[in-house]
Amino acid sequence: MGVQALGFIETRSLTASIEASDVMTKTADVWVVGTEKIGSGLVNVVIQGDVDAVTAAVKAGEAVAKEIGEVYAVNVIPRPHDDIAKILPSI
Fold first, then answer.
1. Which domains does the chain have, with CATH numbers?
2. What is this structure's pTM?
3. Which residues belong to any copy of the BMC domain (predicted)?
């Protein structure tokens, strides 16, 4: 996989997750790996890029998502193990 970092934002709103995705990709040099509708209105967005870019993008995405809906969880994983790719959502 060779990913330097993965970032996650989980919201309780599809609209908030879309807005967060837009802001994250405009804030830093990251791209969306995929999304996952979890249930009960929860939507998880996964991004990847270098550690600093993913960290900045997740912070920006979290801020905008909180304005629109509820942010359930955020996380950044620097240097994820290659096997993580097996469980990531795909677009």
1. 16-87 (3.30.70.1710)
2. 0.90
3. 5-89
